[in-house]
Structures are given as C-alpha cells and as structure tokens.
Amino acid sequence: MTMAPSIRDIAIQAETAAVPYRAALDAMTARNAAIADGTQGELVWLLEHPPVYTAGTSAVDEDLIDARFDVVNAGRGGRHTYHGPGQRIGYLMLDLRRRNRDARGPDVRRFVHAVEGWVIDTLGDFGVEAWRAPGRIGIWTRGRDGAEAKIGAIGIRIRRWVTMHGFSVNLSPDLSHFAGIVPCGIADHGVTSLADLGLEVAPAAWDKALLARMDAFLDAIDAPA
Predict the structure, then answer these.
(1) Across the 225 residues of the chain, what is the mean pLDDT of every consecutive 10-residue run?
(2) Which of 94, 184, 214, 218 is catalytic?
(3) Active-site residue 40, yes or no?
C-alpha cells in the first residue's frame, strides 16, 4: 500500500496487493459511516481484487451464467459486474454535503457524470477515445474489431450523502472471466481492455494519470450548478 499526498484534504490510498472484495466492502462501509459522522475524512482508494462477481441492486439471476467465482451482493447500483487482477478500481468516499451542491442540495446526477468524465479523460491520456453511451451504463470505446466495447464500469451508492463504490477500468484483466455474467445486463456488446487494444499500462501509471486529473474532477463536482 502507498499513501499519496492528499488532494484538497482528500486522502489518497493506492494498494499494490489485491484486496479481497468482502474485506474492501467492509472497510468502505465503515469509512463511509465515519465520514458521515465526521470522525474521518474523505478517501479515494485505488486497488484491485482477486476474481469475484458482484451483484448490484438491479441484478437478475439470468445474468449470472457461470458462477465460477464468488458472488457478492455489493449494495451499489447496477447489475452484475466482474472484478479481478488487471482491473483498476477507484472507490470514492466523498461527502456530498460539503461539495456538489445546487439550490436543492447535493446533485447526484452531476457527481456520476463527473466520475464518468474523469475516467474518459484519463483514458484519453493513453490515446484511447472513450465515451458515454445513451441507455448503456459504463465507459465505452472501440474494440479491436471496431465495434463498441465496454472498457470501464460505474457503480455508485450514496449513504447519508456520502458516496461509496465508484469505477473500474480494464487495464489487462483476463477477458474470458467476463463470460460468466452478462456484464451490467448488456448482452449485445463486448468487453475490452487497454491490453486488448495493444497498450500495456501498469496500475501505478494509471493511478498517476488519474490523480493528475483529480483537481479537474473536483472542479466539476464543486462548481456551483
């Protein structure tokens, strides 16, 4: 584990070893509660998991094709997702009561849009054009065959106006592991990765590029609506 300097008083924690999903979920839940209570500060946590399938609040049984790995109810939004080695995850524990506000209170839609933009812009730094796709959750690009393919996932939960979960980006995972599920319930599009597109990006290089854009991400959620 490495600890980077905080950015705008947000702690940055980057793991170099895989963290089991259930342990990460417990730690994230505890940190979320502590932030809401005012006993701990905000955190951006960058890590990877051993192979696991996670089920969001909209998950349906028919999307679980082959439960070859542990299946965990995640509590986040969305359907089934795969996490595993070679996939970099960003868990965001941020207090929307002190940022991301408009006249009606915290703006959840703007927060999610900003997270998507943060990932898209970072992928662009590695020469990968990525985008949002109307009606389809996640971050999309062109696969090797030229068809649209998913390269990143977004899943957010908010408890007491403090965020949990966040995003995942496929650096170099075993793409065959996605075949055990219908990723995010989308059956008619494939999954790709930076490695599948011919780009070898180490987790530390991804983290560095991502954190270089964190100020811009915070500007997007902190600016008045």
Answers:
(1) 76 97 97 97 97 86 82 83 96 89 72 95 98 91 94 93 96 92 65 97 98 95 70
(2) 184
(3) no
